[in-house]
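hiii so um. not sure if this is the right channel but i have a protein structure encoded as tokens and i wanna go backwards to a sequence. like what aa goes where. can anyone help
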């Protein structure tokens, strides 16, 4: 068998296939003509659904037997550490292996124009917006037909990736979400250093990923290295409301265009208004009117994400008309302020919370989208950042924007050193001291049992987690149907 580019197809196995980027890579490799298998400890939506739709089986749990017959190549996910039974088998019998980021560059980015969206927050949504802008522009100019990989399922495409062929000497665009997390157990540098951007967006720079970065300075160093990869002919679109971003872009060799609310911004946002779930604003470029933009999403942060995408697209030659049309028809990303259910007047929202700043912006956006409604925040401390106590005070500040808060116990707390571990009962105490009702429950089942009797029509429940959260996304609407809608 042969791949779409005429080379011999391979059997490629992905360890940790249910990670967002890994699942996307699996689909891209399959589309190329390779035989793809994979394994994971646990599969959950949306990536498990995407893999199932593509017909890629996920073996659970990890086992050496999952590597029979012997694959030609193994891709080791960055969540996989020494001691994993499949990784140990790969090392013992010397099956060739590589990282996701390296294979992604070599097989898909090389030969294309690399456009990287990076930042502590907003990169998934911004990459999705940029991809949709390119897609709309390609309807009248095929040069803009995008290939992309996004860290979530973009609703406009119904997928997290798309790969188009390279024809002739063209360098078609490849849009990719640039993750600052480390690459693999054998490569501790950020994944985005493998993507060699021709142009890039930098949204925010904050301390995050406390499991691999010792402090903010280490995080800034990673982003400075990314900026240093952009060639002189390239462009960098960078948020101007952050001193950390300013520091990271100061020594760039490429063109730098700042965006934000500052009157001196090259890409200046003004007249920003929110009406329910719709945002609108005027965008100026270099002191001249560029466009009036409308976005069917709430939140200042989403307007900033859209502005960054518009700025990069415009700089790459996409006309304002296509940008306006694309943003007005943008349909968001799964697990980003996604409405999962509406039962008896109660709205259940799913949001991929990973950091106190992201939680704050989510709750602010819900206040704008649902004025006068009671907002519940239901949080599972699951990310490597939220499971640590370094952000405990910031977490209280963010959650205090809700009317009531329900916390779950820290996910796999035993894997976090006691001295570093978040103590959710202290977060509850901090919220109660500020007059915000807050409670702690052991797991999703206990939360559903306690929460459902408290809910009433008009309430908005924001479920905040970057994982499966014990199936709460399905369990809560089902229980609400019984309790509030009288469904038996």
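sure thing!! here u go:
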């Amino acid at each position: 068998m042969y791949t779409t580019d005429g080379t011999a197809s391979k059997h490629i196995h992905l360890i940790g296939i249910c990670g967002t980027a890994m699942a996307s890579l699996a689909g891209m490799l399959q589309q190329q003509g390779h035989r793809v298998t994979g394994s994971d400890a646990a599969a959950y939506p949306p990536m498990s659904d995407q893999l199932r739709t593509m017909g890629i089986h996920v073996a659970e749990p990890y086992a050496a037997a999952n590597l029979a017959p012997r694959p030609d190549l193994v891709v080791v996910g960055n969540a996989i550490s020494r001691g994993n039974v499949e990784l140990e088998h790969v090392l013992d019998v010397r099956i060739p292996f590589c990282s996701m980021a390296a294979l992604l560059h070599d097989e898909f980015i090389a030969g294309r124009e690399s456009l990287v969206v990076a930042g502590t927050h907003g990169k998934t949504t911004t990459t999705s917006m940029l991809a949709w802008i390119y897609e709309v522009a390609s309807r009248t100019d095929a040069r803009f037909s995008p290939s992309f990989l996004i860290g979530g399922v973009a609703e406009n495409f119904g997928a997290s990736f798309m790969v188009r062929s390279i024809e002739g000497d063209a360098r078609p665009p490849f849009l990719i979400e640039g993750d600052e997390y480390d690459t693999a157990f054998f490569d501790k540098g950020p994944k985005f250093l493998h993507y060699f951007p021709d142009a890039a967006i930098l949204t925010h720079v904050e301390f995050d990923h406390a499991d691999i970065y010792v402090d903010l300075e280490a995080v800034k160093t990673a982003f400075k290295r990314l900026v240093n990869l952009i060639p002189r002919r390239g462009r960098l679109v960078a948020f101007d409301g952050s001193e950390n971003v300013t520091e990271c872009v100061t020594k760039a060799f490429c063109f730098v265009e700042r965006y934000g609310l500052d009157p001196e911004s090259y890409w200046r946002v003004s007249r920003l208004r929110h009406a329910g779930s719709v945002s609108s604003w005027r965008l100026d470029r270099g002191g001249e009117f560029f466009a009036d933009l409308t976005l069917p999403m709430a939140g200042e942060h989403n307007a900033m994400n859209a502005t960054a995408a518009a700025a990069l697209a415009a700089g790459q030659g996409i006309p304002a008309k296509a940008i306006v049309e694309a943003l007005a028809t943008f349909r968001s990303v799964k697990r980003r302020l996604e409405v999962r259910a509406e039962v008896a007047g109660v709205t259940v929202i799913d949001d991929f919370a990973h950091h106190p700043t992201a939680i704050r912006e989510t709750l602010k956006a819900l206040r704008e989208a649902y004025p006068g409604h009671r907002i519940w925040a239901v949080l599972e401390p699951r990310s490597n950042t939220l499971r640590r106590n370094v952000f405990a005070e910031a977490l209280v500040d963010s959650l205090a924007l809700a009317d009531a808060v329900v916390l779950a116990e820290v996910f796999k707390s035993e894997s976090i050193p006691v001295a570093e571990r978040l103590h959710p009962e202290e977060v509850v105490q901090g919220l109660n001291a500020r007059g915000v009702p807050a409670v702690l429950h052991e797991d999703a089942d206990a939360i559903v049992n306690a929460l459902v009797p408290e809910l009433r029509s008009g309430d908005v429940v924001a479920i905040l987690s970057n994982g499966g959260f014990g199936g709460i996304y399905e369990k809560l609407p089902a229980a609400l149907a019984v309790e509030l809608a009288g469904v038996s």
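oh and The longest helix spans residues 123-138.
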